[in-house]
Specification:
The complex is a heterodimer of chains A (196) and B (422). Chain A has 196 residues and is mainly beta. Chain A has helices at 9-12, 104-108, 152-165; strands at 4-8, 16-18, 24-34, 41-55, 58-72, 76-80, 83-86, 102-103, 112-114, 120-123, 126-132, 135-142, 176-178, 182-185, 189-192. Chain A starts with a strand and ends with a strand. In chain B, 78% of the residues lie in helices and 0% in strands. With 422 residues, chain B is mainly α. Chain B is globular and about 60 Å long. Classes of the chains: A mainly beta (196), B mainly alpha (422). The A-B interface holds A 110-113, 119-123, 125, 145, 147-149, 151-153, 188 and B 79, 84, 87-88, 91-92, 96, 314, 316-321, 328-329, 331-332.
Chain lengths: 196, 422
């Protein structure tokens, strides 16, 4: 993979995760971002572990199967098309609480997009991330899969958002809502700036 | 002194008012289900096998209650439509495949209802070429120019026309003792047409679009978990009415044809044939009432099916929807709604378009789609993140999964039966 490129969340979900001894331990379930940073950076990864007998420092009375744990991004040693490799051996990973985190798949993907007047615009079809070295940064929300039409009003809004926040990319960004346009992420919907 | 039992069943004025405010989605969805296709199936069942298939509708009613109770719970607790829940819980791809199948089956169903409308117009000697376009426009106008509450009230009033079938059944003078027995004592004939009809009775009564429509209506009305009991009652009344109407159609055709010594078992293929054939054996009034019921039912379904399709597709893809929004705010919604009505009316008016192929393939696709959607529903309703304490109990799950198993088997049989020559 190139050092800086756009990556889709859907292409990362379900990728295999390996521990420091190259043993496959599960798959990627989700990614957490800090929306207060500019640009928002992926800070944790949610890994669906096939099994574990400890959560952080806590040793469990017996091993459990199919458990999802949130690990800090600093745990990632490297990642590419084949999966994610961690720095620690299974199952000794530092674990982070999911409380208050924005998870891309859980909280953004497939969610309803609203404008500032509360009108429904579209659902989020994918989340685009930008790779910078080992880091992953939130680029924006993808709307309109290739075979799905966009409404005229949404097209206008996207074009205005591109003018305001665009980084001079080509027409490939036609269906992209830049992260700067995200106003609020609620449980039910995501509100984006429309009064621009 | 009043006992506890009496107190429990006493309904206060406030509760009654609340129930009247909530009433609507359950009754409308079940009454619309008795559309041209349903009327045809019930007519054929009665004319060909007498009361022998009545027990199948008793079982269908039980299935409907189980499925729709889950729809009511999903809608009131999550505050979201079924399409939205499927999209958020599963994926864009799965949602898109379901929506594509739903678009096709609902379109074919709308065409079938416009065909029923055209046929019933002919019963009253009104040429469809002249009368169908204004009726299609009326259906379109009713929804596009109305508010949700006005449309719902209109639909509730239209539901009253189904009384026509009850009167028709009485005019045909059935043996009510035999009817009572047939409702609860299963009668099984091991012959292909009987089994195909039994399966078709269940298949046509439980359709995928109903689940989407009912849940969207519940959400649109803003009904929450606090109104669960009222919405359950609304649904139960709707199921009893719809199954009751279906049974009266079977009883009417059974008494007029199958048990009439001058006629005997006859092969009828549609509702309009049944209405026309009723005149010499049960009188002109029975025939006209039956035809009027078919006309109203087709008109009713021809309006609701495009509406529910537009709502469902927009909800799945996140587009603005609803008759309270102007065209500029919800273009996709109005496009789907209008295209369904105009397209269906045109297909029916253009001669030599093979309607049968469209109907059969839509029935097959419905058969594949229903178990998929019910399984999605089962996963959703058992998801504690969505339903909290309102997830299915273990016992309810056992009954519901058994029903899913039977539905899968029935729909597989229905698909196979479409390839068996009559």
């Amino acid at each position: 993979m190139e050092e800086e490129e756009l990556v889709s969340l859907l292409s990362l979900v379900k990728k295999e995760v390996f521990d420091s001894e190259s043993q496959e331990i599960g798959h990627l379930q989700d990614l957490a971002v800090d929306l207060h940073e500019t640009p928002p950076r992926v800070t944790e990864l949610a890994v669906h572990l096939d099994w574990t007998d400890r959560v952080g420092d806590v040793l469990l009375p017996r091993a459990v199967e199919d458990i999802v744990l949130l690990l800090p991004w600093s745990e990632v040693d490297s990642w590419d098309r084949d999966g994610f490799r961690l720095r620690s051996p299974h199952p000794v990973f530092p674990v982070v609480s999911a409380g208050g985190k924005v998870l891309l798949r859980r909280d953004l993907l497939n969610k309803q997009l609203l404008d500032e007047e509360g009108n429904r615009l579209h659902r989020v079809d994918d989340v685009l991330l930008r790779r910078e070295g080992l880091m992953l940064l939130l680029e924006g929300l993808q709307v309109g899969a290739e075979w799905l039409p966009l409404g005229g009003r949404l097209n206008d809004l996207l074009s205005r958002l591109r003018k305001r926040y665009g980084r001079g990319r080509d027409e490939g960004d036609a269906g992209l809502v830049p992260y700067q346009a995200i106003l609020r992420v609620d449980e039910e919907a995501i509100t984006i700036r429309s009064r621009i | 002194m009043r006992t506890d039992g009496e107190r429990k069943w006493r309904i206060s004025r406030r509760e009654l008012m609340l129930f009247l405010a909530v009433i609507g989605p359950g009754i409308i969805v079940n009454m619309v289900d008795t559309d041209a296709g349903g009327i045809a199936t019930y007519s054929v069942s009665g004319a060909r096998y007498g009361y022998d298939l009545l027990w199948v509708l008793t079982i269908t009613g039980l299935f409907l209650v189980i499925i729709q109770e889950m729809v009511v719970r999903l809608g009131t607790v999550s505050g979201k439509g079924l399409a939205a829940l499927i999209r958020e819980r599963f994926s864009l791809r799965i949602t898109a495949v379901i929506m594509l199948a739903l678009l096709f089956t609902n379109f074919a169903n709308t065409v079938s209802n416009f065909a029923g409308l055209a046929a019933s117009l002919q019963l009253f000697h009104l040429p469809p070429v002249i009368f169908l376009p204004p009726l299609a426009f009326f259906v379109w106008w009713l929804v596009v120019k109305g508010t949700y509450h006005r449309v719902e009230k209109t639909f509730l009033v239209i539901s009253l026309v189904y009384v026509a079938y009850i009167i028709s059944a009485f005019l045909a003078r059935p043996d009510w003792g035999e009817v009572g027995k047939a409702l609860f004592i299963p009668s099984l004939k091991l012959e292909t047409p009987f089994l195909v009809l039994a399966v078709t009775n269940i298949g046509t009564t439980i359709a995928p679009w109903m689940l989407f429509y009912q849940q969207s209506s519940i959400v649109d009305k803003g009904l929450d978990a606090g109104k669960l009991a009222y919405e359950r009652a609304d649904t139960a009344i709707g199921v009893i009415l719809a199954i009751g109407v279906g049974m009266f159609i079977i009883i009417c055709c059974a008494a007029a044809f199958y048990y009439n010594p001058q006629v005997g078992a006859v092969t009828i293929t549609s509702g309009e044939e049944a209405a026309a054939a009723l005149a010499p054996v049960a009188g002109k009034n029975a025939s006209y009432l039956f035809g009027f019921g078919l006309l109203s039912a087709s008109l009713f379904a021809a309006s609701i099916l495009p509406l529910t399709t537009a709502y469902t597709v927009c909800e799945a893809f996140g587009w603005e929807a609803g008759i309270d929004h102007p065209y500029e705010e919800a273009p996709q919604f109005y496009f789907i709604y209008t295209a369904f009505i105009v397209g269906s009316a045109l297909i029916v008016l253009v001669p030599r378009i093979p309607l049968i192929f469209l109907m059969v393939s839509s029935q097959t696709l419905n058969g594949v789609l229903l178990p998929v959607i019910v399984i999605c529903m089962m996963i959703l309703i058992n998801d504690r993140e969505i339903m909290g304490e309102y997830v299915n109990s273990r016992r309810f799950n056992a009954v519901a999964w058994a029903m899913v198993f039977v539905l899968v088997a029935i729909n597989a049989a229905m698909i196979i039966s479409t390839f068996i020559p009559a």
